[in-house]
């Protein structure tokens, strides 16, 4: 049976502690991005699935590089212990910092969106003002045309245009 020397096992275990620590940091980054993006359960579920895929790929690549692709229990336990150490030691402050960063990012994106939309809002207000003036002018013109028509057109029903006007009104 093939055995791995103790020094290699210790090296793989200590390296797996570091990988687990980095995966813990990665989860806080995913959490901050998810909070900044907003959304509900669907976004949370998608982010969690994506995080699990990233963790699986990172573990696979780590085991391929460090342990010739052999899955050993001490390597997986080392990753779990590294992640647990991160969550106990640095997790709560990192979580608060991530939430503050997400809120700041959300506010910054909101301000940027409002700044980029401001010229279009001004343009829209101008278009609305012009269209309102045009609507009022057309209404005034229509009233004037009706007055002129009443003055110019005789009330005699025998004229063809008066007959058509009676039928179509």
Unreliable runs: none
Average of the residue pLDDT scores: 82
User: How does the major sheet shape up?
Assistant: none
Distance between the termini: 103 Å
Coarse morphology: rod-shaped
What is the number of E strands?
Answer: 0
Proportion of strand residues: under 5%
Number of helices: 5
Give an overview in words.
87% of the residues lie in helices and 0% in strands. The chain is an all-alpha fold and 169 residues long. It has 2 domains: 6-89, no CATH class; 123-168. The longest helix has 62 residues, at 91-152. The protein starts with 5 loop residues before the first helix and ends with a helix. The mean pLDDT is 82.
In a few lines, what is going on in this structure?
The protein has 169 residues and is mainly α. The protein has 2 domains: 84 residues, no CATH class; 46 residues.
Q: Which terms would index this structure?
A:
2 domains; mainly alpha; 0% strand; 169 residues; 5 helices
Question: What order do the helices and strands come in, and which of them pair?
Answer:
Elements: H1 6-37, H2 41-67, H3 73-89, H4 91-152, H5 160-168
Helix pairs in contact: 1-2, 1-3, 1-4
């Amino acid at each position: 049976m093939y055995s791995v020397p103790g020094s290699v096992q210790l090296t793989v275990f200590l390296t797996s502690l570091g990988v687990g620590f980095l995966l813990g940091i990665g989860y806080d980054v995913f959490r901050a991005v998810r909070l900044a993006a907003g959304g509900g359960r669907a976004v949370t579920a998608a982010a969690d699935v994506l995080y699990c895929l990233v963790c699986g790929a990172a573990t696979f690549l780590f085991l391929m590089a460090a342990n010739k692709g052999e899955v050993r229990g001490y390597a997986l336990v080392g990753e779990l212990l590294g992640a647990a150490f991160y969550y106990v030691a640095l997790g709560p402050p990192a979580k608060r910092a991530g939430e503050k960063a997400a809120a700041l990012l959300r506010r910054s994106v909101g301000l940027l969106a409002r700044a980029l939309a401001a010229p279009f809002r001004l343009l829209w207000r101008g278009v609305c003002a012009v269209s309102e003036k045009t609507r009022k002018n057309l209404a005034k013109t229509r009233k004037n045309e009706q007055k002129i028509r009443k003055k110019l057109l005789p009330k005699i029903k025998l004229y063809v245009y008066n007959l058509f006007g009676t039928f179509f009104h």
